[in-house]
Amino acid sequence: MPGAILSAHLKSAIRNYAFLFAGCVLFHAVGTLSLPLVDRDEPRFAEASREMIQRGDYIVPYFNDHLRLDKPPLTYWAQAASYRLFGENDFAARFPSAIAAALVALSILAWGTRLGGNNVGWWAAIIFTLSLQTFLHAKAAVADMWLVLFVTLAHWAGYELLRDSLGAQSHVSLVRPAVAPYQYRTLWWWVFYLSLAFGFLAKGPIGWVPLLTILSTKFFLAEPKLSYRFQFPFGSLFMLAILALWGIPAVVRTHGQFFVVGIGRHVVGRSFASMEGHGANSFGMRGGGDHFHHFQFDQNKIAALHVASLSPDCALARAQGDHGRVDAFRKELRVRVGLSLSRHRSCRSPICSTLLSRV
Description:
Oligomer: single chain
Distance between the termini: 73 Å
Strand order of the largest sheet: 1-2
């Protein structure tokens, strides 16, 4: 009888998880086919992934036949796999982000259920899925959702490894296998360091932030026994061994430039100075924060609004010779763009001013 109850409970949980995953993928994928690639990053990621397939080179990414050393390759790999399934189109470039966001929601549901029961898990997953930042990144052909996924998994694994020292009680047993404590710790140990490795492959050293979280527990846990629980030397070697499978060939083939540019310029450099609209904000300097992602209203978006003046309504008014409607449309657009310029410092450039003068 208990076995039958557990089996029914497990089947119900599987159905719930499948429903959440499918719902999230559908929610994030809707609209991505009709919307062309926008901003600066989406076309770069999408084209680099296409060239990766074209070249048959899955180690060193290229963009317009030039080395693209900005990011590690995980996002390119995911997009290349998506191209194989759906063809080379905008939907295929964005689909991996929808998958990653759905997996994050599943992780939050499982972890939240562990923490506070079924209601907590579901509400946490729903709130995450409906958040504006999730909505934007899950529909974009960029690396962020893969980073979020592996950072979330690493934090969850770290929590499980520290769980007994936190005095927490589990609300369900579905995500905690009926195995010996040593085997249980080993399982989460593997998840922790695999997640750190794939977090790095998604977006570089920012994927190691969970390590700082774990180390900070020394300040508020009486006996965390971090060395015993996490086995940092062995874990670090395991993580670096995974990264070396890609990193060593990439560094050798680019004569060290992948490390110099990818780490030196795009990680260390943008921490102290603005780069392509990103960086420096975390140190109180001017510029946007790449790892905190303020969606700035830059020249590309001003250009998009300028193109909007050629919308069907305005074009029809022009064709009919109704100059009054055309002028009204352009005046309204100019007001909206002007408001945006006044709110976003990144738009105060000659190219933006030129575009605005033409609206």
